[in-house]
Specification:
Elements lengths: L31 E3 L5 E3 L28 H6 L38 H16 L9 H4 L8 H13 L11 H13 L4 H13 L3 H14 L6 H17 L3 H10 L4 H14 L2 H15 L6 E6 L7 H11 L6 E8 L11 H14 L4 E7 L7 H4 L6 E7 L15 H11 L4 E7 L8 H20 L7 H20 L12 H10 L9 H12 L5 E6 L2 E6 L2 E9 L1
Parallel strand pairs: 3-4, 3-6, 4-5, 6-7
Antiparallel strand pairs: 1-2, 7-10, 8-9, 9-10
């Protein structure tokens, strides 16, 4: 289940601002920017105030490259720095320095080094590897405090894990050298929760189950889902590591899905996430703006959405289209969605179509809806029923990362889908995705990606919602936790959250025959205007024709257009 699988849900009219920020009522109404062509871009929060509630559904809304190091390089052999052509230190680590020449081929037990020198070098290495300056002095360990994880969510997780927990390793050949290295670091200098997470991940990668179990038990006493952002991130990630170690990622993921909150609760949680983390909404705005510009000079337009969900993206889209001067073109919208999706328990594709058609009628837009209840991988051109004289537009919003690629199966459904879409000769294709590499990255690098990305999400929540807010707990538990568990604990076909960075999407799209179509400056400027009304910590930038939206210096979502 994607973090933003139904992020297109209609807002509830309740707006959120950074702590201490004065409420700006202008966000509760649409902000339109008209360009030279008369196109008006809606840059609003999708508040329900702007259209009749009868169109709404009580629908569910499920959801730096770091050091490319091997487990042994990361912690199992802390005295040897990797010298690979793929080594790409991130900007987070550039402030540290470590002369690997002092450490190569040395052992922590070597008599050539006294304890003071070993301690100094270990601490220096830890700073380089983990860059924990931002939490220095605030480490829970340093204060000797413990925080219990007594939340019901964790009780559910532990119940599942205990059923399949592995026996402690007693094998004589179970990575003894790696284990001693972990212990040496732990004894020499107390570790922060972040460092312990990475130690645990490396131990699991090395098969050192006994060491990993010990670290997990320590972490569970140190972190809490009610702590600061880094603590909350660690609290969820430690359970994901426990699931991976117990080889129960699949079972745990399914068990959590069986314990889904009610549809209304999940919808509420996703709407809160949508309001307080606008970098997701900005992605949809960018896609809508690009699609609207493609309407120019067209009399009949056919939009194909491969993950329409509850169709919420198109409420704002239709409103904007209806506000444009002149007679709108005839719009045919094809919605593709898996008939077995949990969304369908709330409203079928036909019901969604009727709601959208009713809104289009009120806005005097010639409209037609076509439902394609099918797994995306099974969709064929014939099922889409494209007609002569139609301008075909395709929208992939937070959907492509769910398609397995060549790293999962020789079928390569991801590229197969793109080639099929290219055969439709579309006028425009829009792609919106989260910007992180969890697809082909090896486990430790993927773990680092998840930590970097989701810690930024947790920090952005901290800027708006109080730490004791039940809304925030619901958002983190119902919208973020499952993604973290799936990416960290699952492998193969069971790992469905397979995100890629913008550069990889660009290469993949071009190999499928597409060429970049830069999103216009008008769209970018409209979203920049809205960002300023939220917080200066939210960012937007244009690069190679794509729009990047983020939190501080971290890119979170990317929107691009292709033809």
């Amino acid at each position: 289940m994607s973090l933003v699988r139904s992020v297109r849900s209609i807002g509830n009219g309740k707006l959120y601002f950074p702590n201490g920020h004065n409420d700006n009522s202008s966000l509760s109404t649409s902000i339109y920017t008209k360009n030279a062509r008369g196109i008006m871009y809606a840059t609003e929060s999708s508040s329900t105030d702007s259209y009749d509630p009868k169109y709404l559904l009580d629908s569910p809304s499920p959801s730096e490259e770091l050091l490319n190091i091997s487990p042994t390089d990361a912690l199992g052999n802390p005295f040897h720095q990797r010298h690979s052509s793929s080594f790409q230190p991130s900007r987070d680590y550039n402030q540290g320095s470590c002369d690997s020449g002092d450490f190569v081929n040395q052992s922590p037990d070597s008599s050539e080094y006294n304890d003071g020198r070993v301690t100094m070098k270990l601490q220096e290495l830890e700073r380089v590897l983990f860059d924990d300056n931002e939490i220095e002095g605030d480490d829970v360990c340093a204060h000797g405090e413990t925080m219990d994880i007594d939340d019901e969510w964790f009780s559910q997780i532990r119940t599942v894990l205990l059923q399949d927990s592995p026996k402690e390793s007693t094998s004589a050949d179970s990575n003894i050298s790696s284990s001693s290295s972990y212990k040496e670091i732990s004894v020499t200098a107390p570790q922060t929760p972040k460092q312990m997470l990475f130690s645990c991940a490396a131990a699991i990668q090395d098969g050192n189950i006994e060491q990993a179990s010990s670290v997990i038990n320590e972490l569970r006493q140190m972190v809490s889902i009610q702590g600061d952002p880094l603590e909350r991130t660690a609290a969820y990630m430690v359970e994901a590591l426990a699931a991976r170690m117990a080889t129960s990622g699949r079972g745990l993921y399914k068990a959590l899905k069986c314990k889904e909150a009610t549809s209304s609760e999940r919808l509420s949680a996703m709407q809160v996430l949508f309001e307080v983390c606008p970098y997701f909404r900005f992605g949809f705005m960018a896609a809508n703006g690009a699609l609207l510009e493609a309407f120019k000079d067209e009399k009949r337009v056919h939009i194909i959405d491969f993950d329409i969900n509850q169709g919420s993206q198109y409420y704002t889209f239709l409103q904007t289209l209806g506000s444009m001067p002149g007679k709108p073109p005839h719009l045919r919208l094809t919605g593709v969605d898996d008939p077995e999706s949990i969304q369908r328990a709330v409203g079928s594709l036909n019901v969604i179509g009727l709601r959208l058609a009713e809104l289009a009628k009120d806005l005097k837009i010639p409209f037609e809806f076509q439902a394609v209840p099918s797994n995306t991988a099974l969709v064929t051109p014939t099922m889409l029923k494209c007609r002569p004289g139609e301008a075909v537009l395709v929208n992939f919003a937070f959907q492509l990362h769910h398609m397995p690629d060549e790293s999962v199966s020789t079928v390569n459904q991801r590229d197969q889908l793109l080639r099929m879409v290219k055969s439709l000769n579309p006028k425009l294709v829009t792609v919106v995705e989260q910007d992180m590499n969890t697809n082909t990255a090896p486990f430790l690098q993927r773990f680092a990606e998840v930590y970097s990305y989701y810690s930024a999400v947790f920090e952005s929540l901290d800027a708006t919602l109080s730490r004791d807010s039940q809304e925030r707990v619901n958002v983190e538990r119902q919208c973020l936790a499952r993604d973290i568990i799936n990416i960290v604990a699952c492998e193969g076909l069971e790992r469905i959250e397979r995100y890629e960075v913008a550069g990889k999407w660009r290469a993949r799209m071009m190999m499928a025959g597409f060429t970049p179509c830069p999103i216009s400056r008008n769209v970018y400027d409209s979203i920049k205007t809205l960002i300023k009304q939220y917080s200066e910590r939210y960012t937007a930038k244009e690069e190679a024709g794509a729009l990047y939206f983020g939190w501080e210096d971290k890119n979170m979502t990317v929107a691009s257009a292709w033809k």
